[in-house]
Amino acid sequence: MTTAALTFEERVADRLAQMSPAEQRVAHFVLGSPRAILTDPVADIARNVGVSQPTVIRFCRTMGCQGLADFKLKLASGLTGTIPVQHSQVRLGDGVPDLSAKVMDNTVSAILKLRDNLDTDALDQAIELLRRAQRVELYGLGNSSVVALDGQHKFVRCRIPAIAHSEPNAQALAAELLGKDDVVIAVSSSGRSPDLLTAVDLALEAGATVIAITAGKSPLAKKATVTLAVDHVEESSTYIAMISRILHLLLIDVLAVGIAIRRADSLREIGKRKRSAERSQSDEAESPLSTLISHTSR
Which domain holds residue 237? Predict the structure, then answer.
């Protein structure tokens, strides 16, 4: 069996003989508890195995990874079933290797949990609503305004008129002007902001459709036409919501990719007109998606 045909766990076992005795101890720990290693920072792994932290990093590099975070991603991609999600708390005494690993590991775990729990029927409905929309408005307050602005940029690239509003009064005024062919994407970690809920009510009263990216059982989720639930708990009243923002941005990416695929024919025609005007000879430009989304890149 070629190396390319091996799973990542099998590659670890295959390279055991080439490792130092200390690295072999790490390898045996990985093979014996592959899921446990995904949630532990480098200090805990080193302590559990009985080696130094640099040895753990050397083992990861022996396996062709840039570091522990890269190793965990490759290991996780080869495991089947649901990966346990565990939050590793950043502490004041953490050094840069530990704090960087914890921040990245916590985010990776949350992304995997979102992937496993995502309501794909709701996602399909949201993509179709956006594909047919005459206009898309994105409402987000505070930290969520960044997500709304990112959505505006991506949907405009898909040739859908879109604008983001991050100020409550502007959201309310804009919502009153919407119609039955328009869609609002309301983004909120808590789904409880009175100002955002007011704007959503006005949009619904005007006949618009509302897609909510928010906590599944929140007031916003209950009002929305379609809810893309992100049930990651962060105390946003005390801390800056970090992981939930990444999850919200990720859902915007998924929506944009879905729209680009479903509007491929119209985007192809637009691309032809643009290439004709620019007299481009690029082969890459032949793809209606390649200039819009990175997930088509080889």
Answer: 120-262
